[in-house]
Amino acid sequence: MHRFTGDISIVLGGAAGQGIQTVETLLVQVLKREGYFVFASKEYMSRIRGGSNSTEIRLTSTKRRAYVDRIDLLFALDKNVVPHLEHRISRKTVIIGEKEKVCETECRVIDVPFTHFASELGHPIYTSTVAVGVVLGLLKAEESVFHDFLRTHFARKGEEVVAKNIEAAKKGYTHGSHISFLEGIEISIPRTADPGELLLDGAESVGLGTIAAGCNYISSYPMSPGTGLLTFLAAHKKDFGIVVDQAEDEIAAINQGLGAWYAGARAVVTTSGGGFALMCEGVSLSGMIETPIVVHIGMRPGPATGLPTRTEQADLNLALYAGHGEFPRAIFAPGTAEEAYHVMTQAFFIADKYQIPAFVLTDQFLLDSVTTVRSRDLQAASDAMHIVETDSAYERYAVTPDGVSPRGVPGFGPGLVGVDSDEHDAAGHITESHLIRIEQHSKRLRKLRAVAEAALVPTASSNLKKAKTVIVTWGSNRGVVEETLAILGDAYFAQVHFTQVYPLSAEGKKMLAKTKTVVVVENNAVGQFADLLEREYGIKVSDRILQSDGNPFSVETLIKRFSKL
C-alpha cells in the first residue's frame, strides 16, 4: 500500500528531447484546472539533446513554493533517470516507466508500455499525452477536464490531432487507474485552490511586471536564464507596443537601453552575470549622465560560464559594485511570482524618479518555477514618467536640494537636453573645474538618501517579536524557509524576507536590532547578503547557511540545518 495525503512530489525524468517539458506543461495546466495547489521546478543540463533532466511537480493541500528532495512518484523515461536521481529515491518511492527502457537489468519499476500505446496511435509524439493520462489516472482526476484542455490546446492543429490526443489520454488514464488499483496507490489531496488562478512561471511574472510598469523597449543579447524575459516581451510586443531588439552583444544592449530612456522610452535590459559583466561601463554611463536604466539579471553559478542552467545567488556583489566611480543605485530581489511582478514595477518607478540604474536579481530556480497566482495580487501599477517640458532656460543638471534634476527629453519643449559622459556643468557642457565636480558629484550622491527612504520594507513573520532566532532570506529562498518553519512549528524561529537588498530599509534594521541570533540563508559560498547586513545595519550575523552547488535549498536540508541552531 502506498498512501500519500496532503502533499505529493511527482518527478518526471528523462533526456533532453524526450518531451519532459511537454508533459510538465500539460500536467500542470490540467492539475491547476482540477483545483490543486501546484508548484513545479526543474533541473536540466546545458545541452539540446541527451543528459538527464527532471521536473518536480508538487501537489499540496496548502500553497507551497519550495523544492523537496523527496520523490513519491517517479516517472522515468530512460535508463539514466534512476542513477541520476538515486540520492533522492527511497524505498517509499514508486517508480513508473517503460521497463525495457528504464532498466538494463532487474529493477523495481511499474511497467507502462508508452511506446506500444504511442505506436497504436501512429506516432511517438503521443507518448507525452499518454504519460499525462497515467498521472491523472493515478490521481483519479476528472478525465473530462483533461479532454477539454486537449481540445483547446490542439484546436489549431485540426480535429484529427485532437481526436488522437484524446485517445492517447484515455489509454494513459485507464492504465493509471489500473496501476492505482493493483499497486494499492492512494492519493488524497484536497482540491482547495481556485481553478481560475493564473498559472505563471517566474519569467512570465517578471514580464507582466515589466509590461505593467509601462516598458516599451527591450534591448538584450540572449543569455540563460535571463532570456525568458526577452522572449516573453517579444511574444507580446504587438499587444503592448514594445520595441524588441536583439542586440549584437551586451555592451550594445545597455547602451541602446540608455539611448531609449534618453529619447523618452521606458527600457529594460535582461541578461545573466556573464553578460552583465560586459555592461559595467554602461552602468557607469547611467550614473554619470543620470539617465535611468532597468537591468534584469537572471543569476546562475559562475565564474565564467559556470553552470549555465543551474541556480545561485552569487551576483549581489557584482550588482552592488558594478561600474567605476561612485553613484547611487537600487537593487531588488523578488522571492515569489507575485513579488517578481511588483518588484519590476518598483524598479521602473525608482529608476525613472531618481534617474539611476535599478537592478532586479532573480535566479534560475525562480525564473523556471511554475506556480498559481491570484490575478488580484497583480495590481495595476503607475507608469507615469517623470519628464518635464523644457524651456529655453532649461538645464539638464540643475543643482537641487534632493539631487534630482528635472529630466527633459529631446523635442519635448524648446530646451536643449545636453548630456556628457565626462564631468559636466548644469547645462551638460564638459568641464574639468574641481568646484563644479564637487557640486555635481555631491548632487548625484544626494539621491541615495531619497532612494533609501523609499526602500521596500522587509516582510516579517507574525511571531517576530517573540522569536529568539530570526532567519533572514532574500530572493528565491523565501518559500523554502516559510515551509521549513511551518513544518517545525517552533515559535523559537521567525523569518524576515528582503525584496530590496540595496539600499536597505531602515525598518529592516529595527526588525533585527533586538534579536540576538540572526541567521542568513543564501545560495552562495561566502554570504554576500550577510556581509551587507553587517556593514549597513551594524549587526552581527550569528550563522550563515550557504549552498553553492547549483541546486536550490530543499526543505529537508533546512530542517536539518535549523534543528542544529
Q: Explain this structure to me?
A:
This protein is α/β, with parallel strands linked by helices and 565 residues long. The protein folds into 4 domains: 2-196, Pyruvate-ferredoxin oxidoreductase, PFOR, domain III (Pyruvate-ferredoxin Oxidoreductase, domain 3, 3-Layer(aba) Sandwich), CATH 3.40.920; 199-377, Thiamin diphosphate (ThDP)-binding fold, Pyr/PP domains (Rossmann fold); 387-454, no CATH class; 459-563, Rossmann fold, CATH 3.40.50.920. Helices cover 39% and strands 20% of the residues. It has an 8-stranded mixed sheet. Helix 11 runs parallel beside helix 13 (280-289). The longest helix is centred in the first third of the chain and has 25 residues, at 159-183. The chain is globular and about 85 Å long. The mean pLDDT is 94.
